Amino acid sequence: MDIDVSAIFQIAGIGIIIAMIHTLLKQMGKEEVAHWVTVIGFVVVLFMVVRLLNDLFQEIKTIFLFQ
Amino acid sequence: MEIIQIVGLGLIATVLILVVREQKPMFAFLLAAFTGLFIFLYIIGRIDTVISMLEQLAEQTGIPSIYLKTILKIIGIAYIAEFGAQIVRDAGQEGVASKIEFAGKVLILVMAVPIIHVIVETVLGLMPPGG
Question: What is the predicted ipTM?
């Protein structure tokens, strides 16, 4: 398995840091940039989750569905 | 003692989710989904031994392999549907989760149709003709 437990901490870290950046940018009055940062962070994490989801579905297919 | 690792992982992930949820609920949801996926993926490999044992038993008793395959497919559908429904329910979308479960039930029923067919045919074959 190429994904290990540290990915969970990575996601949590990304979430906290994005929240910090968001707050900072909001304080500086750059709401637009703050929202884009949030969206980009979300997409990055979404990619990680989707890759793992793909792994899981492949595994279930090979074990249960014989494909 | 893998269960200790998994429980520890779940506890740590829960704390992290609670921390992140304060700031960004979206990330908390993704983190929960990721944790669930990780545990599932970690444990799904263990089921291999059970399935090989079942296959061996089916081979010894001469059960046609199509039945075992159907049953395993049904189990797979059940796992996938349950998993998806739980993640969606975590996000608070009770309605969508119910629909996923409903779809899983219907698909399982469709999968079971050949088996039901065979059972009915067997019962009909046992009946005396003209009865």
Answer: 0.80
Nearest chain B CA: its distance from A15 CA (Å): 6
Question: What percent of the residues of chain A are helix, what percent strand, and what percent coil, each to the nearest 5?
Answer: 85, 0, 15
The identity of residue B128, as a single letter, is: P
Q: Tell me, what's the pLDDT at A10? A: 87
B83 and B116 share a domain?
A: yes
Tell me which residues of chain B have a C-beta less than 8 Å from any C-beta of chain A. Answer: 9, 12-13, 16-17, 19-20, 23-24, 26-28, 30-31, 33-35, 37-38, 40-42, 44-45, 47-48, 51, 69, 72-73, 75-77, 79-80, 83
List the domain range (segments joined by +) for residue B39.
1-47
Structure token digits, residue B44: 């799904």
Note the pTM of the prediction, 2 decimals: 0.81
Together in a domain, B29 and B73: no
A chain contacts of residue B31, beta-carbon cutoff 8 Å: 8, 11-12, 15, 45
